[in-house]
Amino acid sequence: MTTPDSSTGASRLRTASKSRRAEMRFAYLFLLPALLLVVVFRIFPLLWGFAISFTDATGVAPSHFIGIANYVQAVSDPNFRDSIVNTLFLLATLPIWVALPMVLAILIDQGVPGGKLFRAVYFFPAVLSSVIIGSIFNVVLRYDGSFNAFLGAIGIDAVDWLGSSTTALLSLLAVQFWSTFGMGVLIFLAGLSTVPKDMVEAARLDGAKMWQIWLHVIIPSLRPIIEFSAVVTTIGVLTSMFGLIYVLTAGGPGTSTTLPEFLIWLEQGKLNQPAYAAAISMMLFVIMAGLAWLQIRIMSRNTNL
Amino acid sequence: MPGAGKRQKRALWIASIPMAVLALSCVYPVFFAINNALKSNKAYILDRLSLAYEPTLANFVQAWTRSHLNEYFINSVVVTVGAVLLLLFVSSISGFALACLRFPYRRLLFAIILASLMIPIQVVLVPFYRTVIALDLVNTRIGLIISYTAFFLPFSVYMMTAFYSGLPRELIEAARIDGARFSQVWWHVMLPLGRPALITLGILNTLYCWNDVLISLLVLQDQRTLMVGIAALRGEYTTNVPLLSAGLVLAAAPIVILYVFFQRQIVSGIAVGAVKG
Amino acid sequence: MRKTTLMVALAALVAASPALAQEITVWDFKSGDPSLAAYFDKVKNDFEVGHKGVTVKYVMQPHDQYYTLLGTALSSNAGPDVFLMNGGALAKSRVPSLLKLDDKAGGLIKTLTGLDEFKGPDGGVYGLPITLQGHVVYYNKKLYKDAGLDPEKPPVTWAELQKVCEAFKAKGKVPCFIMGNKEGYGAEFFLSSIAATSLTAQEQTDFASGKLKWSSPQMKAILQAWVDTGKAGWYEKGANSTAKFMDEYEGFMRGDGANTIGLLSDVAHWKQFGDMLGAENVGAFRHPSPTIAADKTAGEPKIPIAGGIGYGVNKNSKNVDLAVALVEEFAAADPIKVFVASAGVVPANTAVDLSGISSPSLKSIQGWLTTSVAPTAHANSSSEELEEWHRQSQKLLNGETTVDAAAAALDVVQAKVKPQK
User: Fold this and answer.
1) C247 and A142: CB-CB below 8 Å?
2) CATH number, domain at A188?
3) Which of A202, C23, C257, C412 places its Cα 20 to 30 Å from the Cα of A66?
């Protein structure tokens, strides 16, 4: 769990019921601002959106209750189905999204030559807007672009990276990964600072090999951060890729890079169907909540917390 | 690292090669943006990759004045600083409560915050906008500060909770057994211990607030923030990449400086000293 | 201390006259463009001079979020008084929020063309177009010469166009057409360009109403032409990863392709291409079609023309009359003349004098405007059908689907959006 029981300390505290009540009071007091903000600005609008998804609202005419018609429409909408298939493909790549930044962070923490420089530089793509990143990769990945020129030089045939249905999603994901992995590295570096250095040192003095230290000391103590990273990355790739999709592929060719998020934008803005967009959003929300729950369950099963 | 074996050293050297290539690829867009910001649009169209052989500062001047970026700059600074401070404070106390304190419905409350992390902004756009209007927060800086805090808070609370959960147990317990009041535990123990995470969150949230376009478009329509001004540089069909690059270079400079300045602080481990003390 | 006194006096003045100060808010996706500053400044100044105590406020929104924000604002009763729209499907879907302008701006409406794209289902005018939009093929005369073609004799029949493309294929240096279909716009413009000549006036109407199906022989012929031209190697490789705006047109401006289907207004037109390649090196021709409609003649292709962008009035505006007056100002001949000079547009207002502009391709276009005009099929299509056409066109070009399957998929969308009795 992310909020592990602090069993021994807590039980000692629990003996004094007075201090237990004080703990409770403080906890609620400390959580109040966060809950207030979240409920008013996020949960409440979500419920509102949930209500809209059962109507035929178009944003201009008065709306009527139409039951689950929007959800029925989604299930039979080939574009929605394709976007779910694309999502599944994307989810299959998730372990890389978590593992690679972690490995990079550990290497930097272990003092890889040039680590300080890498630490500073890996963050740069995250600072730039998706428009600039899109412009660059348009030039790099287009059919007569620099990447194909490079491949040609080493004898590999040109591929239409963004224009062919088989490679477009993969290319998009690679660019998205590249533009966000710096944040992952940053988060893992913060987590690594809680790993007691003397534990690592002790293991080393015991003659443990590097991979053993990684596997038995460092990675276990990063567990909450790994779980955090997995959940946040899942949510991130499902809700923050619009910018790149818009610039790099516009959802195509066909539906090969249409993710639910892009479809929501299309239905809501261009096609002026906010109620249908709300229904798709609700389904996306359920998918994400289910995935996050699953991830937390899997992680906590492997812990002794 | 002192005492590292020869083999480890060699392994790290080998690992540094692909890492350096990756680092190079991360520097390139910065070069691309600066280089193209110095070109005229015509020069950019004719050759997008070449060096700016006739460098001009016209784009910077145009972005700064014609696009009112000078006016928007102050809005962005005020709103970002306000929101980040609020975010750090609220997420630090919430993370402490969720990770270290025992109380009924803890999991439920944690689940509510976690669930709100998963709400795509596209779906809450209309209801959120109406909520902001109903609370009379539209077109105010404080409204945007509160909106940012609300939107980026779940991530921050979650991260602080995860971070505090990863701290060695003894630290918290030691503080609690000493009989310190919880507010003092938070102030004297958790806040200093949380520094690496808080700095990380400070950087990330600064980036999120500074780079946000959508929330700002809705809440602050009268005054505009920097990134909205830059987003507006994109036309219906055309993107004047040199002008956009100039705007982005101007807008990203403070973030990059801030980041380079603060990122050292993250890694300076606190745990070692604290455990011994 | 004179300054302070002045400030106090000013403050008192402002405080004393709040009832007089009225503000008309305008939303658009253009006013941030530096090259259009002259037009927007003129409209604002002229209007504020003519209407004392009124200020015009432009709020520019990024185009990618424009319609989302507009819909959100309108449904939250926080919308602007006046807003800009793209003619056709996007404008028509906003008609319920718009004020009917026939009575209030009747005089001006008589001088405007391109009104169809701003009409509601009742036939009323709900927005005043400021530009005309349409498609012709622009070609690079130098590249024609290189390929041994006569740059002064552009093709007028399908067979001639085929010969042109064969010449470029044989030469092997640049593609015949530079094509950007990443967003599906390449296919959209192709569709309208062919349909202008291959559909009769009645068939155009039937297509707009949904009576003429995508699987009809007439429409399938267009889809087939799309596939055939792709297979014949008219386009560069990677057209599906080239953005029409602006990768394709920038390629044309670099001389990377011989022909491109361009626009009449805003961008990718006679002025922009002329500025980059030299006006004398750019020519324009009407896109021929492989099939000729019964009411058209071979060798006389038509060009699709429609209202481009235009302004409408929010019917919930608190200052409806001022808003209407402002919309009229936007479409009036004087400011539009400034617009034409700075941005290069073909105006919707027929009272605008274009004689001062020397561009050979604009001259040709002006001639065709009176002789060779046809409806723009894609502007009369629904947004849903267009999105599907974007997707299907990409698959067709990649060889991932057949004309029959694509037409069937498009029929499903068409039947849903435009149900037939």
Assistant:
1) yes
2) 1.10.3720.10
3) C412
Q: Which of residues 246-265 of B touch A (CB under 8 A)?
A: 248, 252, 255-256, 259-260, 263-264
Pick the CATH number of C15-130+308-350 from 2.40.37.20, 3.30.565.10, 3.40.50.880, 3.40.190.10: 3.40.190.10
Task: With H, G, I as helix, E, B as strand and everything else as coil, classify residue C60.
Answer: strand
Range of the domain at A265: 73-301
**DSSP per residue, B107-144:** HHHHHHHHHHHT--HHHHHHHHHHHHHHTT-TT-HHHH
Query: In chain A, pLDDT over 70 holds for what percent of residues?
Result: 90
Chain B residues whose CB is inside 8 A of the C68 CB are 125
A133 or C123, which is more confident = C123
- The phi-psi region of residue B4 (left if phi > 0; otherwise alpha if psi is between -120 and 50; otherwise beta) is beta
Higher-confidence residue: A261 or C82?
C82
Check if C213 contacts B (Cβ < 8 Å): no
Cα–Cα distance measured from residue A252 to residue A133, given in angstroms and rounded to the nearest whole number = 18
Q: How far apart are CA A48 and CA A70, in angstroms?
A: 16
Residues of B whose CB is below 8 A from C28: none
Helix, strand, coil percentages, rounded to 5, for chain A: 75, 0, 25
Write the pLDDT tens digit of every residue in B55-70.
Answer: 888 889 888 877 778 8
Q: What is the pLDDT of residues C269-302, one digit of tens each?
A: 888 899 899 989 999 999 999 999 999 998 999 9
**Whether residue A276 is found in the same domain as residue A142:** yes
User: Which residues in chain B touch residue A285, judged by CB atoms under 8 angstroms apart?
Assistant: 118-120, 123
ipTM rounded to 2 decimals:
0.84
A120 and A269 in a single domain? The answer is yes
Both tokens of A183, joined, read 């944040």
Q: Are residues A281 and A207 in the same domain?
A: yes
The tens digit of pLDDT for each residue in C231-255 reads 999 999 999 998 888 889 999 999 9
Asked if C82 and C314 count as a contact pair (C-beta separation under 8 A), the reply is: yes
For B126, the closest of C61, C63, C72 (CB atoms) is C72
